[in-house]
C-alpha cells in the first residue's frame, strides 16, 4: 500500500516519467539540439556527360528533371524530411513547406 508521500501528485509524476520514455524525451534530447544538419532544397536533377559539363558557360541552361511548379524536396543530411514550394520574401528566395514527411515514412526510407 502507498504511503502518504507516494500519493502526492509530484510522486505520481516522477513515477510516470520513469515508466514512460516519451515523458522524459524532451529533457533527454536537449543535447542534440545543437548538432548541425546540412539542409538542402532540391529543385531538380539531371545527368550530364563530362564533355557536356565542360561546354557549359555563362548563360547556359541546364534542363532539370522536374517541371515548373512541381514541389521541391527538402533534405536534411540527404534524407527527405519535407516538400514545399518556392516563395520570394524581401527579394530573397525561400521555401514554404507544404508537406512534412511523417515519422513512419522517414523510418521506412532509412531501410
The CATH superfamily of the largest domain appears as SpoA-like
Summed over residues and divided by their number, the pLDDT gives a mean of 78
Radius of gyration: 24 Å
Please report the first level of CATH classification, the CATH class of the largest domain.
Answer: Mainly Beta
Tally of discrete structural domains: 2
Reading the helices and strands in chain order gives: HHEHEEEH
Here the CATH topology of the largest domain equals Surface presentation of antigens (SPOA)
Head-to-tail CA distance between termini: 48 Å
Structural class from helices and strands? alpha+beta
Tell me about the largest β-sheet: 4 strands, antiparallel
The helicity comes to 25-40%
Count of runs of 4 or more consecutive helical residues: 4
Q: What gross morphology would you assign?
A: extended
CATH second-level architecture of the largest domain? Roll
Low-confidence stretches: 1-24
| DSSP E strands, number | 4
Lateral arrangement of strands in the main beta sheet: 1-2-3-4
**Percent range for β-strand residues:** 25-35%
Amino acid at each position: 500500500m502507498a504511503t502518504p508521500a507516494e500519493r502526492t501528485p509530484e510522486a505520481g509524476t516522477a513515477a510516470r516519467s520513469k515508466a514512460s520514455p516519451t515523458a522524459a524525451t524532451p529533457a533527454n534530447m536537449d543535447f542534440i539540439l545543437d548538432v548541425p544538419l546540412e539542409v538542402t532544397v532540391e529543385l531538380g536533377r539531371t545527368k550530364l556527360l563530362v564533355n557536356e559539363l565542360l561546354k557549359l558557360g555563362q548563360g547556359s541552361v541546364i534542363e532539370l528533371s522536374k517541371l515548373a511548379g512541381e514541389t521541391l524536396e527538402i533534405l536534411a543530411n540527404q534524407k527527405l524530411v519535407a516538400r514545399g514550394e518556392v516563395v520570394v520574401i524581401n527579394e530573397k528566395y525561400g521555401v514554404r513547406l507544404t508537406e512534412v514527411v511523417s515519422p513512419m515514412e522517414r523510418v521506412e526510407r532509412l531501410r
